[in-house]
Design brief:
Strand order of the largest sheet: 1-2-3-4-5
Shape: globular
Oligomer: single chain
Structural class: alpha+beta
Strand content: 25-35%
Number of helices: 2
Helix content: 25-40%
Number of domains: 1
Distance between the termini: 13 Å
Largest sheet: 5 strands, antiparallel
Number of strands: 5
Length: about 70
């Protein structure tokens, strides 16, 4: 999955797979999570957010199934 660097104090990069609707988030500490059944517009919102961490907390965490990679 192609990862895109984001300007964030906590998140290093984000990526999205259209075929499986999977969002991948890599944190600066090296941990990586995949969130499942995420709509593409949610990924775009995360990628373009003024606060990536804030968007992640408000719109993604707790709303989607996830797995630590």
């Amino acid at each position: 999955m192609k990862m895109i660097h984001v300007d964030s104090t906590n998140v290093e990069a984000v990526g999205y797979d259209e075929d499986s609707s999977t969002l991948q988030v890599e944190f600066k500490n090296g941990t990586m999570y995949q969130y499942f059944d995420v709509q593409e517009d949610v990924f775009i919102g995360l990628r373009d957010a003024d606060s990536v961490g804030g968007y992640l907390a408000a719109r993604i965490k707790g709303a989607y199934r996830y797995s630590k990679v």
